[in-house]
Specification:
3 strands, mainly alpha, single chain, 3-stranded parallel sheet, 3 helices, 85 residues
């Protein structure tokens, strides 16, 4: 699998955490769409932690989520240091 589309999936905290655990060790997924899952800051924080160690994702869609200021800050910090996205 090189493309994973889980947009509009209604992922809540538990599903988000499971996905993020997979992403931490992912070596094949290069395109990830997690748009429109209504993720808030809590999910964003967990997601950003996974992105810190992921070096294979090159395309990412997080549109349509409801990140607040903290979530946006975490995402910006990850994008500053993750050189593959």
């Amino acid at each position: 699998i090189t493309t994973l589309d889980v947009s509009n999936s209604g992922f809540e905290d538990e599903e988000c955490r499971a996905l993020c655990e997979v992403l931490k060790t992912n070596r094949t997924i290069t395109a990830l769409d997690v748009s429109n899952n209504e993720w808030e800051d809590g999910e964003c924080q967990v997601f950003c932690e996974a992105l810190k160690t992921n070096t294979t994702i090159t395309t990412l869609d997080v549109s349509g989520n409801t990140f607040g200021d903290d979530g946006c800050r975490w995402l910006c910090e990850v994008l500053k240091t993750n050189t593959t996205i």
